[in-house]
Design a protein that fits this description.
With 250 residues, the protein is mainly alpha-helical. The protein has a single domain (2-122, 162-249), classed as Arp2/3 complex 21 kDa subunit ARPC3. The chain has helices spanning 2-31, 48-57, 59-79, 91-118, 120-139, 145-165, 172-207, 215-249; strands at residues 35-38, 41-44. The radius of gyration is 19 Å and the shape is globular. The model is unreliable at 1-8 (pLDDT under 50). The chain crosses the membrane at residues 15-36, 48-75, 87-110, 122-139, 145-164, 176-200. One of its GO terms (molecular function) is transmembrane transporter activity. This is ECF transporter S component. Keywords: Membrane, Transmembrane, Transmembrane helix.
Length: 250
């Protein structure tokens, strides 16, 4: 009896978490708070509830929140269209990447956490190197390449120092949550832009006033200018939020 009751409570918790985080994602879109202006791009944080839900409750919950996010994207594309909204009229483009945010985030979280336990030092240094490279690529958008590389190198040195001094490698949750957040965000960006290229490359090029022969490069540029800042912002927000939730549950 007790086992069945616990299972029921867990299912109820999952449903409540799904509804709550889906509502937050939609609220961010409706209110405009889900968009952060980082000239010359607008970064979105509407995918963050999807990542949080997948990490704390699993891939099914994450996928359902992602589905709600995708359905809202379709609704917004029909009710408040922009020159490029037509791409989200297609359910494959609007829904599939958003559902996979939750799936990829969860399995990245679990996989990195297991890897960190096996070889904490190597895993920690690999994540620090990955973050430094991501920072260099993001800064390259706004600064000359040598400036972005210098800043990224400084970040690498500082993080490595902290890693060694305070033994951050023991905090497997920090590394796994951060990596899951990065990969979840990039899953959305890469898949959406890839599907746009597959289904609508010529029409999309015309909508953004780009020569169709240069559409591929334009899409890659959009991915760089939007995806990388979004991934970094997502990580900054998701890590402390999920850490707090996990700490409360313990």
């Amino acid at each position: 009896m007790e086992k069945g009751l616990n299972k029921s409570n867990f299912s109820t918790r999952q449903m409540v978490t799904t509804a709550m985080l889906a509502a937050i994602s939609i609220f961010l879109g409706l209110s405009g708070l889900g968009f952060i202006k980082i000239p010359p791009v607008n970064a979105t944080i509407m995918h963050i509830p999807v990542i949080i839900g997948s990490i704390i409750e699993g891939p099914i919950v994450g996928g359902l929140i992602g589905l709600c996010f995708g359905l809202f994207s379709m609704y917004q594309a029909f009710t408040a269209p922009t020159p490029t909204s037509f791409v989200f009229w297609n359910p494959i483009v609007a829904l599939l990447p958003r559902i996979l945010i939750g799936v990829i985030s969860y399995y990245a979280f679990v996989g990195i956490k297991k890897t960190v336990k096996i070889n904490a030092k190597a895993s920690g240094m690999a994540v620090i190197a990955f973050l430094s490279i991501m920072i260099a690529l993001a800064l390259k958008i706004f600064f000359p390449i040598y400036v972005s590389c210098i800043i990224a190198a400084a970040v690498f040195v500082v993080l490595t120092f902290l890693f060694i001094k305070y033994k951050l490698s023991e905090k497997s949750e920090v590394l796994s949550i951060g990596t899951a957040s990065l990969l979840g965000t990039l899953t959305n960006t890469v898949l959406v832009l890839t599907l746009i290229y597959v289904f609508y490359v010529d029409r999309f090029a015309k909508a953004i006033n780009v020569n169709p022969t240069l559409a591929g490069k334009a899409i890659v540029t959009i991915g760089m200018t939007n995806g990388i800042p979004e991934a970094l912002i997502s990580t900054i927000i998701v890590v402390p939020v999920v850490m707090a939730i996990l700490k409360i549950r313990k």
